[in-house]
Amino acid sequence: MNARISAALFMSHVPAIGVAVDLARTDEPYWQPLFDGIRPAREWIADNPPDVVVLVYNDHGNAFSLRMIPTFALGMAPSYEPADEGWGPRPVPTVDGHPALSAHLAQSLIPAGFDLTLVNEMTVDHGLTVPLTMMFDQPAAWPCRVVPLAVNVVQHPAPSGRRCLELGKAIRAAVDSFDEDLTVQVWGTGGMSHQLQGPRAGLINREFDHDFLERLVADPEGLADVPNVDYLREAGSEGVELVMWLIARGALADLGGGPPPREAHRLYHVPASNTAVGQLILENSPA
Known about the structure:
The protein has 9 helices and 10 strands. The protein is of the alpha/beta class.
C-alpha cells in the first residue's frame, strides 16, 4: 500500500503560544480561551494520528539568515534539534525526520520544476515547534515524524500563492507514489493577520482573515491568484505568511479531481500576543 494524505491542517505559529505552554501559563485568563479553543483539534488528532507530517513553515533567522534565504528548503535529515532563538532552545523534544520520504519528495518535486534547496542539517525554530505544541501539548517525544518544508516569506519577493498551491498539488502526487504504508498530513502554518513593526504595528484585520478562511475551504484556486501585495496591505507585513497555507490546501484530493474535503475544526481567536490566530482542519473525503 502506498502512502496517502489524510488531511491538511492550518494554524498560526505565534511564538508566545509556545512560551505560554513552556511556562505553564495556559490556564491564565489571557491564554485560557485560546487553549480551550484548540482542545477540539487535539482531540481530533488523537483520533486521527499521522505517521508523518509535512510541515510547511518559515524560519525566523535561525537555520537561515539574510546571507542565504532559499525560497523553498526541504529538510532531509533524520532529526532536527530545536533552535536557540536568543533565549535558549525551547524545552521540547527533538523532531524526528523521515529521510526516505524527504528523498522521495526531492526526487519527485525537483524534476517537476520546483527548485528546492535540500538541507541535510538544520535546527527548527518556533515556526515548526509551536504548531507541534498546539496539536500535541508536551509529550516526552513527538508522536509522529516530520518532514520540514521552510518557505521564504521574510525577504521579498516571496513565492506567490499560485506557486504555493501548485507545490501542494505536486506534494500530493509525490506522496501518493511513495511505496510505504504511511498516513501523511500536510500542515500549513503562519499568520493570520499581524504586523510587528512600523506605524501599523498591531494590525489585525478580522474581515480579511475570515474571508481567507472561507475561500481556503471553498475557492482555493481563486485564492491562489491573490497577489502578495494584497496580503501585505490588508493583513500586515507578516500576513504574507498565509501563502504557506496554500501549500497544504493544494495537497488535498479535491484539487486533483477528488471529492471536496470535510471541515473537521475551525478556530479564530484574537489576540495571541499581537496576532490573530487561526486554526483549520480539512479531512480528505473518501473517494
